[in-house]
Design brief:
The protein has 387 residues and is mainly beta. The protein folds into two domains: 174 residues, Sandwich (Jelly Rolls), CATH 2.60.120.1390; 173 residues, Protein of unknown function DUF2961 (Jelly Rolls). The protein has four helices and 27 strands. The strands form five sheets. Strands 3, 5, 6, 11, 13, 15, 20, 21, 22, 23 and 27 form an eleven-stranded mixed sheet that branches. It is globular, with a radius of gyration of 24 Å.
């Protein structure tokens, strides 16, 4: 009898596996399963197809480039970009149904901190993503730097790419608000899949913070007030230093699920968290054969110091840094709540730590169940400005 029951269970398992295999939803695609077919539908939204509908691309007869296409007409790059007027919000995409955004490409003009990116999932009225455009793509200092990672790529000269998977069950909406006094021109494309979304799929979130300067003997808060179940997947930081010497001794701390004074996860230094070591320094010899020590930028799939802006001894006086750390293979899971801080710490002349007063901005990336807790109000335009 036991053998019969065991045999039946095996048959059920094979049947379930076959059904699961048959119903592959087209998400979580990588080189190991790229050959698999699914019933998912690929769609894309751009200024040449605002709705992403099948067979509706390139139909514009009038658009921003009508004059350029006047000899060629419909189908010949008539409307390849948008213009967002000062004080206006433009809806880049509004998608109905279930699926996931899998890639976003765009290239903006203007001041990147003054274009505010927001994303809404399903029926929510407050955004799950609210971040200045440049910072979302690791470009908080209004200067291009090559960023080559799995989640975000920034390519010459201002080509912003996101590969974060962003699932939705009913609806997805993406907007950009221009808070500047000048129009913004944006070329963009949003690639998504219409398919079934697993029951255990959480929603993508991103939140911006800036403190300038950090108060003496205070810590910088990357995020706080996250409520619900989820996992933390990444940090971008734009760090401007106001003092001489090494600036990255501070420890990052993850307070989760009721932690109060002491965290569950405690780092050992800023460069350590961003997967570097010993001040991001390497030694080399200059043309005169003299050994010098200098910061070394690096890009890897999961972490990097992709940007070092050195003062020029004239009007550009600050050293500024851009760093990212993606927790793709090591997400930080939380059941109820999450708060993340990092110390702003350097050195005094006598070997004691120096509580610094740096200019620090960050973007926190995570997935969680909805609803999410309200975000703090974004800094004002003057407080956002990089100068």
């Amino acid at each position: 009898m036991k053998q019969i029951i065991t045999f039946c269970l095996i048959l059920v398992g094979i049947s379930v596996a076959a059904q699961s295999d048959k119903n592959f939803n087209g998400l979580s695609v990588d080189l190991n399963n790229l050959f698999r077919l699914s019933t998912a539908k690929t769609r894309s939204i751009s200024p040449e197809n605002f709705t992403g509908e099948k067979g509706k691309g390139g139909m514009a007869k009038e658009g921003v480039a009508s004059k350029n296409a006047r000899d060629l007409g419909q189908g010949w790059k008539v409307n390849p970009y948008i213009i967002i007027e000062p004080g206006k919000t433009f809806t880049l995409a509004e998608i109905n149904g279930s699926g996931a955004i899998q890639h976003i490409w765009l290239t903006p003009t203007g001041i990147w901190r003054f274009s505010i990116l927001r994303m809404y999932w399903d029926d929510e009225t407050t955004p799950s993503v609210e971040v200045p455009l440049g910072d979302f793509f690791g470009m908080g200092w209004q200067e291009y730097a090559q960023l080559s990672s799995l989640a975000v790529c920034v390519n010459p000269g201002s080509a912003f790419n996101s590969y974060w998977v962003m699932p939705f069950r009913k609806k997805a909406k993406i907007t950009i608000e221009n808070i500047n006094t000048e129009p913004v021109r944006i070329f963009y494309q949003i690639d998504y899949t219409l398919t079934e979304v697993p029951d255990d799929a959480a929603y993508f979130h991103a939140q911006f913070r800036r403190t300038n300067p950090v108060k003496y003997k205070d810590v910088f808060t990357i995020t706080e007030g996250i409520k619900g179940k989820g996992h933390y997947v990444g940090t971008y930081m734009a760090w401007g230093v106001h003092n001489n010497g090494w600036w990255g001794e501070g420890e990052i701390k993850f307070f989760m699920d009721g932690d109060t004074e002491f965290p569950t996860i405690n780092g050992t230094g800023t460069e350590d968290y961003f997967c570097g070591s010993y001040d991001f320094d390497t030694k080399r010899k200059n043309e005169a054969g003299v050994e010098i020590v200098d910061y070394t930028t690096f890009n890897t799939p999961y972490a990097g110091l992709h940007q070092v802006i050195r003062g020029d001894g004239h009007y550009k006086v600050m050293q500024r840094f851009g760093m990212y750390r993606w927790h793709i293979t090591d997400p930080i899971r939380f059941e109820k709540d999450l708060r993340i801080t990092i110390q702003d710490l350097g050195w005094r002349h006598d070997g004691r730590y120096l509580p610094q007063q740096s200019d620090i901005s960050s973007v926190a990336f995570w997935y969680q169940t909805e609803p999410h807790a309200p975000y703090p109000k974004l800094p004002s335009k003057d407080e956002l400005e990089v100068n």
